[in-house]
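Fold this sequence, please.
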Amino acid sequence: MRKHLWRYGLALFCLLAAIWLWLPDPGAALSQDERAEELPALIGHLLNEQGQAIAEAEVKVFFDSEEEPVAFAASREDGLWQVELPRLPENTVSIEFHHTHFSADSIELEGEDVAILKQGESLNLGEIEVQNRYAPGFWVAAFTFLFVLLVIALEKLPNATAALLGVAIVFVTTFFGGNLISEDLHIFDFERALTYINWEVIFLVMGMMIVVSVIESTGVFQWLAFQAYRWSRGQPRVLVVVLIIITTMASALLDNVTTMLLMVPITLEIAIALGLPPTSLLIPEILASNIGGITTLIGTPTNILIGAYAEISFNDFLINQTIGVIIALAVMTVYVLWFFRDTFNQVEKGISPTLYAKLEENAQIKNPVVLRKSLFVFAVTIVVFAIGEGLHMVPAVTALLAATAMLVWVETDVQKMLSLVDWTTLVFFMALFMLVGSIQEVGLIATVAGFMGDVVGTNLYAGVFVIVFGVGALSFAIANIPLAASMLPVVEYLSGNISGAVSNKILYYGLSMGAAMGGNGFLIGGETNLMTAGIAERAGYPLSFGRFAKVSIPVTLLTLLVGSLWLLFRFEILGG
């Protein structure tokens, strides 16, 4: 009884979360002009030096040199502010803008503008630019973010712990430093921090974790490994190609870490039986996993972040990136086969009866009924991902509906399901969103965007290469998830400066390719790389930094070049 309560309770939660994400914002239906009384108002957009919106800035309106404001308001997320005037001015109107992280500014209205207000008509002041003032809170947020990136890169703390530590530093600075020492140490409060969490991403990841955990419990991946060995007939080069194809397809539909967790033990088994160094099979799989996931919205965590931020659909990723990814994988495969040519030539070719029997035994499907049901739900999920845009259904809704179907229709142990969901990753995402929000709040991202904007200008070709290779180079050593999250507002700003880049979102696709392909550069460049190396080392086959880099660096540079050229061909030559 308790088991059923847990199962249906979790299913109900997923269903309610899906409904909440699907329902429109109730406030969106109300027009800004629907007011109880027809009063004149002052309206404008508050922007920083890079033209990005400033939220929660305090706007005060003064009449005729009066000391107390007659009205005030706060700017919204899009920088829009609107102040209702309780009465009409006599001679002058003064408007003051105040935000902790921007220089105080004011506007004086008189003459014709005041006359408009006195006639009872609202006045739109348009875009108003204020400058970042680099208060102490700016430097605390900036150094905290860099500190967290360094801790993650050096693996001194788990990712979630490092991100939570960074958020803790920000909040301590805000609530103790900002209240007890100086207002200049204020970064943002808890309520403001929550607005930076992208709940669509959180629920999408959670829903897909539930779906994938059911599928992997059936043993279907062990069956695929057996098929790979049988198809290759013990030929190392054919085996590498088959493993790359399986890894790529799995990474496009599952997250990379899950794919490699399933592939690594099987690959080690095959390599040892054939007398191959396990690294000759593991390295191509790592590279294929990071590259292959770029093809779909759910293939990499970075794509999930980019898709939710830029409103890029499942179909958009599939249509605009798949061919480029296939070309990059072909280039990678050719290089890997060339690099390990001597190793493959020394191995005796042919089927090993012992290994064949062992893989065949492990390839038994544990629960055919669960497999059929779960694959049906997964197939329907992929279809709904593809058609969901027409239904105005965000991907998170699809994932939650799929998780609900798994929990209700596919018989499973809900306690086991809950243990398989990686809650640590979800906590990491939430903390990361708040941490990136802190540097966005103080203006660091706007400053970086301005610098990159000066370099790129309005040149699309420069923009694509700077994003793909710049982000790719940084992803060599910086975890690509926090890097991609911090770069999203930068890409938004650069896209606004380049003609056509907003409509076709080419720079967002460049960010996707740069972050994922760049993660192949060094062993510390991605969680998939580190996890694979850890399992191999525990099995007695360490994957060294240098050994990995000899293969990965040339592959990464080649695939980044392929990715850049493909995006330019896709959007500039073919149009889109």
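The chain has three domains: 40-129, 136-194, 201-573. The beta strands are 41-47, 58-63, 71-74, 80-84, 93-99, 102-109, 123-129.
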